[in-house]
Amino acid sequence: MNILRRTRFALSLVTLSCLVTAGTAAELATNASWPKFQNGGQCVIAGAKLPKEWSSEANITWKAKIEGYGQSTPIVSGDQIVVTSTSGPNKENYFVASFALSNGEKLWQVELTNPSPVENTSYVSRAAPTGVADADGFIAYFEGGLVVALDHQGNIRWQRNLVEDYGPITSRHGLSSSLEQNDKHIFVWVERSEEPYLAALNKSDGETVWKVDGLGSTSWSSPRLIPVGDTVQLICSASGKIAGFDPATGKRLWDFDQISNNTTCTPIPVANGRFLIGASDGRGEAAAQTDGTSNGVIEIVKQEDGTYQADFAWQAVKAKSSFGSPIVADGTAYFVNRSGVLFGVDLESGKQKSTARLPIGGIWATPLSQDNLLYLFGSKGTTAVIDMTSGDPVAENVLFESAPAEEGQMARGGETLYSAVAVPPYLILRTGDTLYALKNPSSE
């Protein structure tokens, strides 16, 4: 990377920091502590110290059962943790439930009817999309096409049946795309088998602001707002395709297709106009030859004619991802592959810095970082805490032991750790039917 490009990258990091700070201030003004999926891609945690060590008995502040089963990430606003789940032989029932952050008490629960019942098996998504929180309450979204807005007491403010409005939702393994939001709108991405679409809905009443074609490819990732210059773009990633949209109008701004097997990882902002993307190793000989270079940083550049183009700023040589998205911490991009191998790649140059095999297997939950520690949450219940400077393990924490899923398949045969949320001093972990709140004894 030449000096000019390095300088531009450094300036972009400063700009992104300002944009993130402004966004965080706005979110704090709504009293939301973790207001959307992956905290908008901001997975470096400030504030009180998170616990480093725990087990099935140690450092668990509380544990709460969730009715039914769900794969969404909890969202947090003030003292409320809100989760979604589903139950019934054909996922007939949907639930939105609120638990107290301080003690795990269930504060309220709303039961809804699924407009698109389908057999409830481990081969399909089960309440997988994550909702959002803002000053007015919570908005939940389910893969059956139901969108519902609730106030902080669990009262329904408005409800939309997207199947009734835009037709049935059919997709292999179901949908898992979470909601994205700005101040006025939520963004819903329905990458179904036929006529996929991306839509913006008013947060105040649920009415459609705009609706455009989706990408037409397999995806279980989520849309992400990324700062580009003095604007923001809505980025969607599906197998073999990435596209940028104007969040105000839905206009498609650019397309990129020099990528493969980017089906599950959501774009992570790393600098103004730049985002980190992850892809799995796919299947078969051809996939094994090409997909290592589908992990890296993509840069969006405005052209002289006002249009935009996207391309890799750098591509990893060996680093690959699994279900969990890669993250950036302390100038390093971290990827975890299906076998639990951790790759550390220099964020600026793309050069591989480190590699280590971890005792956690693959991951579903997005990793988190605080101070000099990296938290890697294995789907089978073991979390590795790594010192990012030395690369040495700090702790290996077994919350539960679960039978592994078959490679590339939806988890089944035992408990699965789907997500982790940090609300210092609490670390919140979610399995299909249980919430765990972990905290250091010293923070009592």
UniProtKB/TrEMBL annotation:
GO molecular function, one term: protein serine/threonine kinase activity
Signal peptide: 1-25
Protein's UniProt keywords contain Transferase: yes
Chain ranges of the Pyrrolo-quinoline quinone repeat domain: 59-163, 198-398
Highest taxon of source: Bacteria
InterPro entries: PQQ_b-propeller_rpt, PQQ_rpt_dom, Quinoprotein_ADH-like_sf, WD40/YVTN_repeat-like_dom_sf
Keywords: Kinase, Serine/threonine-protein kinase, Signal, Transferase
Keyword set includes Transmembrane helix: no
Protein name as annotated: Serine/threonine protein kinase
Organism: Blastopirellula marina
Origin organism lineage: Bacteria, Pseudomonadati, Planctomycetota, Planctomycetia, Pirellulales
